[in-house]
Specification:
The chain has six helices and seven strands, in the order E-E-E-H-E-H-E-H-H-H-H-E-E. Helix 4 packs across helix 6 and helix 5 packs antiparallel against helix 6. It is of the alpha/beta class and 193 residues long.
Length: 193
């Protein structure tokens, strides 16, 4: 199974209406399980990313169904929601009833912290510090991949709460990598038929 873990950074902040689709992509970084490598793509490099995503079996992210995939879909001629995805934030919210920050879960589960914040990333991008943004985004992809692997192995993840570290059982982990009849991996979405 070819799994693509991804994260994006944007060029600016949310406006008054918090419309995700009003944001513009700065960079998207991925980990490709097929090559066990990381890569980053700016807007003009997206055609190379589409070829990878179209041959993937699973997209993994954190808040990716609500944020990353809709923003990427603005630039894609097909529909990335047709590729099976696991949004770890969504999985946590379904069990816990609330959203948790990636940094909270990373510290409690993996013992590591994020290397920055989304607001820092925006400032770096606006100051032309593109390599810092790419490194920050890649670091988030690494954390997300490691959280996914931990959750698959342990069927749970951990988070810090006001009274200490707690564990969240994730009952759906067994289905994350199962293919259904509707899964359309290795399908070319960008070419017209």
């Amino acid at each position: 199974m070819r799994k693509i873990t991804l994260d994006i950074e944007t060029t600016g902040e949310f406006g008054a209406n918090n419309d995700v689709l009003a944001l513009d992509l700065a960079v998207v970084c991925i980990h490709d399980s097929e090559t066990d490598s990381f890569a980053c793509f700016t807007q003009n490099e997206l055609p190379s990313l589409w070829q990878i995503l179209e041959r993937s079996d699973l997209i993994i992210g954190y808040n990716s169904d609500h944020f990353d995939i809709p923003i990427l879909n603005k630039y894609y001629t097909g529909d990335l929601t047709r590729i099976k995805s696991v949004d770890l934030m969504k999985e946590v919210k379904e069990v816990l009833g609330r959203r948790l920050k990636l940094d909270n879960i990373a510290q409690a589960t993996l013992g590591c912290k994020k290397s920055g914040s989304g607001l820092q990333s925006i400032a770096w991008w606006q100051n032309g510090e593109y390599d810092k943004v790419k490194q920050y985004c890649t670091d988030d992809v690494r954390i997300t991949r490691d959280l996914y692997d931990y959750a698959r192995k342990n069927k749970s993840i951990k988070y810090a709460d006001y009274d200490g570290v707690r564990e969240i059982k994730l009952p759906n982990t067994a289905s994350w990598e199962k293919k259904s009849k509707d899964d359309q991996s290795a399908l070319t979405h960008t070419l017209p038929f």
